[in-house]
Specification:
Layout: E1 2-6, H1 12-21, E2 25-30, H2 36-41, H3 43-59, H4 76-101, E3 104-107, E4 109-112, E5 117-122, E6 125-130, E7 133-136, E8 140-142, E9 155-156, H5 158-163, E10 170-174, H6 178-189, E11 193-197, H7 209-221, E12 225-227, E13 231-237, E14 242-247, E15 253-258, E16 260-263, E17 267-269, E18 302-304, H8 315-329, E19 343-345, E20 350-355, H9 358-363, E21 368-374, H10 379-383, E22 390-396, E23 402-409, H11 420-424, H12 429-433, H13 444-452
Parallel strand pairs: 1-2, 1-7, 2-3, 7-18, 9-16, 10-11, 10-16, 11-12
Antiparallel strand pairs: 4-5, 5-6, 8-17, 13-14, 14-15, 19-20, 20-23, 21-22, 22-23
Helix pairs in contact: 1-4, 1-8, 3-4, 3-6
Bound molecules: flavin-adenine dinucleotide (FAD) and nicotinamide-adenine-dinucleotide.
The site of flavin-adenine dinucleotide has 38 residues, from strand 2, helix 2, helix 3, strand 4 and helix 8.
């Protein structure tokens, strides 16, 4: 089978490797860098900077651990060099894996000429490809606000923020979603004065309300000035900083001036320039390429995966959809199960969730019972010096099925993925109670929170 993959992010490169390993003749077209947003401008570089920020923050309290050091300082140029080294090494790894799997990689921008024909603009000129089976994985880019375009100078988006070589003195972050909060904590901990302006009533509003509330408390502790339910009107670069004007929730007009303004107000699909309509592929009014649960577009043999579909914008979702699309091209019958998508935020404490939030479970018609267990009562969290956090379990009050888990604490992003077994196979709280969690681990608080839904937690009164 011949398969053409357009886009080399975590959707496209995984599709290419998976297909090549199943014996397909694969061509991957990437117009920029292998690894896409995630590796070059997203997951990896942000986490590298967050890691430096976390350790710098912790180093200030080394004396509490009995470690004597001189006062720690930030060398941001070194932070950036380390981040770039990690990205470069991982990008080389992706290239190596594609080559070893036997996938051909063409550097250039692809566009459809018809159902079966694609033109690729390369540095050497345009080439034509024939393609019966296509996987579109062209990803997403940062949204601009209608009244505020990120020009890369003092008004920036996440791409520009990751390319900064020096720390600004101050920054206004417009948007308190995942990108806004991760950057806010990283920069604040590295010494930048950070203000968040968020339109909704809570930060990371799609997470469970208790996690959102904790995020606000944690960022405030880091010195971030947070304004919720506010409406940004505009921003003007005055030469002495960018002045952002906004209306507070009570209607008061305010302004804040900072060296940089980071627009972190969501991302939009990239299908412009792809001419998908030439192949008959339908797009919605927002520029997404909609797919069914098996990643099929409206055109037989053409699949779409990852951010371009307008679904959940996460790297692991793009990669999972890649394997679904490839499997289905080979005749498997695979479907995406959104119940088991892990949602992780890499601040400290880390946050991680799977399944229904308390609010969403109630909206879906469940009668819910919840259990809570605080990180401050967990031995390992204390040892790690991270008392902010909790495990919150959401269960069906009727039959005890575990519907969702919401975690904050040390390394919780490492704990949430295996929880898919609990949610997918509809285990009950009783089932989880029979599991043995190693001691001393942070993960013990997951079992305790589930027991707490029936007031049976051992280490809680
Ligand atoms: P992309 O990674 O965007 O890749 C698409 C690729 O297609 C690009 O390389 C692009 O150049 C190429 N392309 C586009 N059009 C064409 C064309 N016509 N021809 C050829 N090539 C083309 N997700 C997580 O799961 N965890 C995180 O911690 C996380 N952190 C993030 C932090 C930031 C700052 C950002 C911005 C995003 C983060 N994400 C994270 C989201 C994650 O990066 C995306 O969900 C993921 O990259 C989507 O993968 P994709 O393959 O669909 O698209
Ligand atoms: P988002 O949708 O999570 O958050 C955007 C926020 O901006 C929202 O809270 C929204 O209310 C706010 N907003 C929009 N317009 C505004 C305005 N005019 N004024 C004030 N606030 C405004 O989007 P994002 O944070 O840009 O992230 C994009 C995607 O990237 C997310 O969907 C996420 O899945 C992915 N991502 C994931 C991770 C992770 O997994 N750790 C990290 C970063 C990004």
């Amino acid at each position: 089978m011949d398969i053409l993959v357009i886009g080399g992010g975590p959707g496209g490169y995984v599709a290419a490797i998976a297909a090549a390993k199943r014996g397909a003749k694969v061509t991957l077209v990437e117009k920029d860098m292998l690894g896409g947003t995630c590796l070059n401008r997203g997951c990896i570089p942000t986490k590298a900077i967050l890691h430096s920020a976390k350790l710098f923050h912790e180093a200030k309290s080394f004396a509490e651990l009995g470690i004597v050091t001189s006062e720690p300082q930030v060398d941001y140029a070194a932070v950036v060099r380390r981040k770039e080294g990690i990205v470069k090494q991982l990008r080389g790894g992706v290239e190596f894996l594609l080559g070893k799997a036997g996938a051909e990689v063409i550097k250039g921008g692809a566009r459809f000429l018809s159902r079966d024909k694609v033109a690729v603009k390369t540095a050497e000129g345009e080439i034509g490809l024939e393609a019966k089976n296509v996987i579109i994985a062209t990803g997403s880019v940062p949204c601009n606000l209608p009244f505020l375009e990120a020009d890369g100078k003092n008004i920036i988006n996440s791409d520009h923020a990751l390319a900064l070589c020096e720390l600004p003195k101050s920054m206004v972050v417009i948007g308190g979603g995942v990108i806004g909060c991760e950057f806010a904590q990283a920069f604040a901990r590295l010494g930048v004065t950070v203000t968040i302006l968020e339109a909704l009533g809570s930060l990371v509003a799609t997470m469970d309300g208790d996690l959102s509330a904790l995020m606000t408390r944690v960022l405030k502790k880091d010195g971030v000035d947070i304004h919720l339910s506010c409406r940004v009107q505009g921003a003007q670069d005055t030469g002495a900083g960018v002045c952002v004007t906004y209306t507070e929730s009570d209607g008061t007009q305010k302004s804040v001036t900072a060296d940089k303004v980071l627009v972190a107000a969501g991302r939009r699909a990239v299908a412009d320039g792809l001419d998908a309509h030439e192949a008959g592929v339908a797009m919605d009014e927002r520029g997404n390429i909609p797919v069914d649960g098996g990643c099929r577009t409206n055109v037989s043999g053409i699949y779409a995966i990852g951010d371009v579909t307008g679904g959940i914008q996460l790297a692991h979702v793009a990669s999972h959809q890649a394997e679904i699309a490839v499997g289905n091209l080979f005749g498997d019958k695979l479907e995406m199960d959104e119940r088991i998508v892990p949602y992780c935020i890499y601040t400290s404490p880390e946050m991680a969730a799977m399944g229904y939030t308390e609010q969403k479970a109630s909206e879906a018609g469940y009668t819910v019972k919840t259990g809570m267990f605080a990180a401050s009562a967990n031995g390992r969290s204390m040892i790690e010096g991270m008392r902010d956090g909790f495990s919150k379990a959401v269960l069906d009050a009727g039959d005890g099925t575990v519907l969702g888990i919401h975690l904050a604490g040390p390394n919780v992003t490492e704990m949430v993925s295996p929880f898919a077994g609990v949610i997918k196979f509809e285990a009950t709280g009783e089932d989880v109670a029979q599991m043995i969690f190693a001691h001393p681990t942070v993960s013990e608080f997951i079992r305790e929170s589930i027991l707490d839904a029936d007031k049976k937690a051992i280490h809680k009164v």
